[in-house]
Every structure is written in structure tokens, then in C-alpha cells.
């Protein structure tokens, strides 16, 4: 695969839309406060234990930067500081961290540093692990929106009821696709990536490109939100999947109610679990991106599944003074840019290379 082919293997601006076209145009992240993310752990601190559970508000700072500062202040190794997911740098984000109470800081509330402030600190029994959250709440302002008000209402009604394609956002691929390019160079042997975090970004970008390509084909043929024979169905809000040999009225109804979703491949070693036309589509798509698929298998990743459809919960919006404000909740691993893509299309300026897990 040539560099030009790598550049077009994933093009956010060309990803097909699911709800008949955008509502207009606008700008996001004009100011960090225009993009607010609040982590939803789904549990409360224990109130006792050998760790502090800190709630941190960060502005224009990435998660790993905050970890380094907490490590320096506490004189605790960075590997002993836990967090559930990465949050966008170009935003105001509230997220949780844990660190042992045996730190150099006795009282954490109000402790601050470059781009962050600790807003609460409660004792907790265990270290926070990656993925240990339910989702994220978003409060996003689209500035200078130009479009049809009636179309905006119709579109957002559809998004709230039917969900959106569960695309990986452009931040997964890095600035100008840098993570994806590094994956291609890694797999071809042109470069080595010894840093664990940067290697993880490259592998994730390659995996995400294959998933997005499969999902784009399902959006185009109108099956991104419909269970097909041969699908692996994903239970909403769960990692559970099951094979669909034949679609009956019960499965069709469950899918229409967003209780189950079609799923797509997170590429790696092993046999695809899908069958029939679904299997053929996934194999053909992966073959078109073979350097990524082959590289992921050699890297030792295993086949996994991810829902093709994303439920958008608690969606509210208002429009005033030329701006549109959106508020909604997404499950973990989802990208707010997948929602914005349906509203204003692919011109999502201001995204960075950190995920919103």
C-alpha cells in the first residue's frame, strides 16, 4: 500500500451519513469550554481504602500529561496512577484518577497544576483500571451554525431515536492521519515504535480504519442499524455478542428498539464469527486494507467485535444567537464526533490525537 493509499484508507470527510444529510455547517472547539466532557464512572467512591479517587477538571491538557503531573506532585510512580479512559485535550474534561494514599500530598482538594485542578478527593479501595467507566456526558457548542432550523430538528429527533453509526472519530487517527501512517510504517518495517503508548495509538488507528471501512459499507447499503442473517449481534450496553443464523420478528423488534445492534470487526488473529453476506463484506473490506489487517495479526491482537450503531442518550439541544448547543450521553469507547458528523459533516476542525474513551 502506497502512502497515497494510506492517506485515503480512512477519510473522515467521505464517511457516509445515515440520516439523509447534514443540517448545516458550523465550527466546534472555538474555545475549550465549547467542548465539555464529564466522565460517568457508574459507581461512587468507597469512602475507605488505600487509594484516593480524585475527580480532576482539566483544560487544554491531555490525560497522560495530568498523570505525569500527579506523579511528580505525589512522588508516586506513574504506573501506580489509575484512570479509566483518555479524554480530548482541546476541551474541558472532568475525569477520575486513583493513586495510593502513601503519597507526598496529604490533602488533594484544590491541588492544581498546568491545565488541571483537583475538585474532589475520596478514599477508595482499588486502583482505577482502563475501561472501568460507563460512559461520558457531553456539552458541546457548535459556533456560527448556518443551516435549516426545521432540518436540524428533524435530524436530531432521528439521532435521538435511531442512534448514529458508531464511527471511530478522527482523533483516533491522529493529526493529519499521523497515527495511521505510523501504523503502516511499523507494519512495513520502516520504523520501530518502542514507546508503549505511541505503539498503542498506531495499532488502534489501524484497527479503527478497518472497522470504519466496514461500517461505511453497511451505512451505504442501509444495514448499519438492521440485523442480518450471518451477523454477530451485540447486546446494548454490554460486551455480550451472539450469532444470528436467521432474523425473525423478535430479533428485528429488539434491533428496532436498540436493544441489540449489528457488530463489526476489531481486527486481529482468529476466525471471523460472522457468516454469509456479512462475512463476505468483512473479508473483502479487510483485504482492501490488507497491510493493516496482516500487521495487526502479526502484532498479536485477537479478533473482537464492536457495535456498528451508537445509542445517543439524553439528547437535548437549543439554538440561539447563531450557535447550537448539544447535550447527550454516550457509552464508553464512543466518540462525540460520530454525532457531530451527522449534524455538520466531516469538517470537524480542532480534533486532536487523544481518544474519548
What does this structure look like?
The chain is an alpha+beta fold. The chain has 2 domains: 168 residues, Pseudouridine synthase (2-Layer Sandwich), CATH 3.30.2340.10; 82 residues, Pseudouridine synthase (2-Layer Sandwich), CATH 3.30.2350. Helices cover 30% and strands 26% of the residues. It has 9 helices and 16 strands. Strands 1, 2, 3, 4, 5, 6, 7, 8, 15 and 16 form a 10-stranded mixed beta sheet that branches. It has a 4-stranded antiparallel beta sheet with strand order 11-10-12-13. A two-stranded antiparallel sheet has the order 9-14. It is globular and about 60 Å long. The two termini are 30 Å apart. The C terminus is likely disordered.
Shape: globular
Q: Supply the helix-strand structural class.
A: alpha+beta
Overall number of domains: 2
Largest sheet: 10 strands, mixed
CATH-scheme architecture of the largest domain: 2-Layer Sandwich
Give me the count of strands.
16
What portion of the residues fall into strands of 2 or more residues? 25-35%
In short:
The chain has 357 residues and is of the alpha+beta class.
Layout of strands and helices, then pairs:
Layout: H1 3-9, E1 24-27, E2 35-40, E3 51-59, H2 63-74, E4 82-83, E5 92-100, E6 112-113, E7 116-124, E8 135-147, H3 149-162, E9 164-165, H4 178-188, H5 196-220, E10 232-235, E11 241-243, H6 249-256, E12 260-266, H7 276-288, H8 290-298, E13 304-307, E14 309-310, E15 313-320, E16 323-331, H9 336-344
Q: Which features characterize this protein?
A:
357 residues, alpha+beta, Pseudouridine synthase, ten-stranded mixed β-sheet, four-stranded antiparallel β-sheet, 16 strands, disordered C terminus
